């Protein structure tokens, strides 16, 4: 397959699956997270305490590979980087998490490796995946490192997905330093995805359904987790670590200059970092799940200027927004947010693709890169 052909592939880096083994585990539970059957005989997925409407309807689109491929075909998606969805293994004991991670990683490898080829002339398959680590409180470092080793040995797993809690203390926990080192050395991509949002009391007493937790809580959770990684020096200690942030990095791009200013006024925190905080935003990757061209352009601008901040001194160097496009990648968040009728296309696909096509300042090369070229390069496809 030629470079010109692969550069035009549409690649989805943010798409989830609840593998059958995982779905069965959730069905066996009586506490959240769980899959329950309501009085109407409908299965519903409940992943957060006090979740509105008794959770959300869940069906074969969450675990059936045929339906994943049908969704891809309907929307012209050539390749998907599939990840197990939240809450991953957070609710399990260390021993249960270790065995579940090993089994689910093997399941995902089979799910991907036996998927169809992109075309008769290609060695690429339609599906690749992000593995799981047994990151739960009390797990041994050796068990986590063994999972990293397993994932790196499975040819169709190109990275790993994790939430924001780490082994219970967050992703700035010094206990994770050996994990970051092992992941970086293995060349795996870390996909950071939220699950817990923020304190539900922030949403008040008015019933707004899932709107506030999903639209605001999830991105804020990502923002805090990624910022804690920056402040703790993770990217200084592990410069080869490749981090992909869900939902275009949450509010981190929008708040990066405010963050840098606050750091500059706190000498203790500032002394931990080799560079201005904005520099590190250019070392991170972002999905393009932001639904609007203005939001994508803003994120691209922030990434583009990041290399100007090579020290703690504020730089005033104009940057081309095309530079930032190199670190952004198309995503759909399938199977969440389905259309309201069977005849509709998925808004997450249509709106994000339309946004990529209408970002002011991006040429065809940048649009093709965000649609697929960047992902092919990042994941070594």
UniProtKB/TrEMBL annotation:
Keyword Hydrolase: yes
Domain of life of the organism encoding this protein: Eukaryota
InterPro entries: ACMSD, Amidohydro-rel, Metal_Hydrolase
Residues in coiled coil: none
SUPFAM superfamilies: Metallo-dependent hydrolases (SSF51556)
Keywords: Decarboxylase, Hydrolase, Lyase
Domain Amidohydrolase-related: residue ranges: 11-381
GO terms assigned for molecular function: carboxy-lyase activity; hydrolase activity
Gene3D superfamilies: Metal-dependent hydrolases (3.20.20.140)
Pfam families reported in the protein's UniProt record: Amidohydro_2
One GO cellular component term noted in the UniProt record for this chain: cytosol
Keyword Lyase among UniProt keywords: yes
GO biological process: secondary metabolic process
Protein family: Belongs to the metallo-dependent hydrolases superfamily.
Identification of the protein by name: Amidohydrolase 2
Species the sequence originates in: Pterulicium gracile
Biological classification of the source: Eukaryota, Fungi, Dikarya, Basidiomycota, Agaricomycotina
């Amino acid at each position: 397959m030629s470079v010109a052909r692969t550069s035009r592939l549409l690649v989805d880096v943010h798409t989830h699956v609840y593998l059958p083994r995982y779905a069965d585990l959730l069905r066996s539970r009586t506490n959240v997270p769980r899959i329950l059957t309501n009085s109407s005989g409908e299965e519903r997925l409940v992943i957060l305490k006090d979740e509105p409407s008794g959770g959300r309807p869940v069906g074969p689109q969450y675990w059936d590979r045929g339906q994943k491929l049908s969704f891809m075909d309907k929307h012209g998606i050539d390749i998907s980087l599939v990840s197990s969805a939240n809450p991953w293994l957070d609710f399990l004991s260390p021993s249960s998490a270790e065995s579940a991670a090993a089994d689910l990683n093997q399941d995902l490898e089979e799910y991907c490796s036996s998927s169809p080829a992109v075309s008769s002339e290609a060695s690429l398959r339609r599906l690749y995946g992000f593995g799981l680590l047994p990151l739960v409180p009390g797990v041994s470092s050796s068990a986590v490192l063994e999972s990293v080793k397993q994932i790196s040995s499975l040819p169709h797993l190109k990275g790993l997905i994790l939430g924001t809690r780490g082994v219970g203390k967050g992703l700035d926990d010094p206990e994770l330093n050996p994990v970051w080192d092992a992941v970086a050395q293995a060349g795996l991509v870390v996909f950071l995805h939220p699950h817990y949002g923020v304190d539900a009391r922030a949403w008040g007493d008015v019933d707004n359904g899932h709107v506030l937790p999903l639209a605001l809580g999830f991105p804020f959770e990502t923002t805090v987790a990624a910022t804690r990684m920056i402040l703790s020096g993770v990217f200084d200690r592990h410069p080869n670590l490749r981090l992909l942030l869900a939902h275009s990095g949450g509010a981190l791009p929008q708040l990066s200059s405010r963050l840098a200013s606050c750091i500059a006024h706190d000498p203790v925190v500032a002394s931990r970092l080799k560079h201005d905080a904005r520099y590190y935003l250019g070392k991170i990757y972002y999905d393009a799940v932001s639904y609007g061209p203005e939001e994508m352009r803003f994120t691209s601008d922030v990434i583009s200027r990041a290399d100007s901040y090579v020290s703690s001194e504020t730089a005033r160097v104009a940057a081309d927004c095309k530079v930032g496009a190199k670190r952004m990648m198309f995503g759909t968040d399938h199977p969440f947010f389905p259309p309201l009728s069977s005849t509709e296309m998925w808004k997450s696909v249509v709106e994000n693709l339309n946004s990529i096509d209408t970002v002011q300042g991006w040429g065809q090369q940048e649009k093709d890169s965000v649609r697929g070229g960047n992902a092919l390069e990042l994941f070594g496809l």
